[in-house]
From TrEMBL:
<dbReference type="InterPro" id="IPR051535">
    <property type="entry name" value="Siderophore_ABC-ATPase"/>
</dbReference>
<keyword id="KW-0410">Iron transport</keyword>
<dbReference type="InterPro" id="IPR017871">
    <property type="entry name" value="ABC_transporter-like_CS"/>
</dbReference>
<dbReference type="InterPro" id="IPR027417">
    <property type="entry name" value="P-loop_NTPase"/>
</dbReference>
<keyword id="KW-0472">Membrane</keyword>
<keyword id="KW-0547">Nucleotide-binding</keyword>
<keyword id="KW-0813">Transport</keyword>
<keyword id="KW-1003">Cell membrane</keyword>
<feature type="region of interest" description="Disordered">
    <location>
        <begin position="1"/>
        <end position="21"/>
    </location>
</feature>
<keyword id="KW-0406">Ion transport</keyword>
<keyword id="KW-0408">Iron</keyword>
<dbReference type="InterPro" id="IPR003593">
    <property type="entry name" value="AAA+_ATPase"/>
</dbReference>
<feature type="domain" description="ABC transporter">
    <location>
        <begin position="22"/>
        <end position="258"/>
    </location>
</feature>
<dbReference type="InterPro" id="IPR003439">
    <property type="entry name" value="ABC_transporter-like_ATP-bd"/>
</dbReference>
<dbReference type="GO" id="GO:0005524">
    <property type="term" value="F:ATP binding"/>
</dbReference>
<dbReference type="Pfam" id="PF00005">
    <property type="entry name" value="ABC_tran"/>
</dbReference>
<keyword id="KW-0067">ATP-binding</keyword>
Length: 283
């Protein structure tokens, strides 16, 4: 069953379920006077791929930035392993939580290997310099993403899909158990979207990564995520397994979309088929 937003927010100090490592309590997010997210509660379940879906401007990316400590809440708090994330040392957070924002940028001429090596910075200090463990982590990240042969290439020489894999390599080299990916398939053609999402799935199934990603494509979200969080107007309006969330009523309520939901013949997950004006009278 889809879950409506609670009428009353939970206490900011209330712990989430035991299998939730990251969560939000009574979260209110804004840019200046413009409030984007209202009194939001959310728990990110451990060892799960979660996709956040919703129309443009509903607060998906803003929520992810707050979960990754890139945005300070106006009210409420984000909890990491039961502790307020804003009170934890930056390096401690960076060893546990990695975030890949939309359209990340890097200095001109930076190579793939140099970019991926930056993922090891949270593990460096004045008494712990670059080590064989760091070297191994970078090499492993490049192997995992299939980027070894491109390690010496400059990022600006790569295709969109290759660049995205390079940035994911950096996040992987960071060695975090939690990954936040903000629209990792944006600007990619369908083949490269599948390539990136297949990689995310491998990170989850073979490395045990907990992943939260913002996605626009509902059918890809349903296929690759075990859990969906649907947002509208800065609030969570439903969360659960894809078959529970992607109902025809919810699609109309959240997206204003007249659609039919059938079974994907390949994955068995929900498949959203928009009706459109041309066919509305005959369906």
């Amino acid at each position: 069953m889809t879950r409506p937003v609670p009428a009353r927010p939970r206490s900011q100090d209330r712990p989430g379920p035991p299998d939730a490592r990251l969560g939000a309590r009574s979260l209110r997010l804004s840019y200046g006077e413009r409030v984007v997210v209202h009194d939001l509660d959310l728990d990110v379940l451990d060892n799960t791929v979660t996709a956040v879906i919703g129309p443009n401007g509903c607060g998906k990316s803003t929520l992810l930035r707050a979960l990754g400590r890139l945005l300070t809440p106006a009210e409420g708090t984000v909890l990491l392993d039961g502790k307020r994330i804003d009170r934890l040392p930056t390096r401690e957070v960076a060893r546990v939580l990695g975030i890949l924002p939309q359209s990340p940028t890097a200095p001109d001429g930076l190579t793939v290997a140099d970019l991926v090596a930056r993922g090891r910075h949270p593990h460096q200090s004045w008494y712990r310099q670059w080590s064989s463990a760091d070297e191994e982590a970078v090499a492993d990240a490049l192997r995992m993403t299939g980027m070894e042969r491109l390690a010496d290439r400059a990022l600006d020489e790569l295709s969109g899909g290759q660049r995205q894999r390079a940035w994911i390599s950096m996040a992987l080299a960071q060695g975090t158990e939690l990954l936040l990916l903000d629209e990792p398939t944006t600007y990619l053609d369908l083949a490269h979207q599948i390539d990136v999402l297949d990689l995310v799935e491998r990170l989850h199934t073979t490395r045990g990564r907990t992943v939260v990603m913002v996605l626009h494509d509902l059918n890809l979200a349903a296929r690759y995520a075990r859990r969906l969080v649907a947002m509208r107007g800065g609030e969570v309006v439903a969360e659960g397994e894809p078959a529970e969330v992607l109902t025809e009523d919810l699609l109309f309520h959240v997206f204003g979309l007249d659609a039919r939901v059938i079974e994907d013949p390949v994955s068995g997950t929900p498949l959203v088929v928009p009706v459109g004006a041309r066919h509305r009278t005959t369906v």
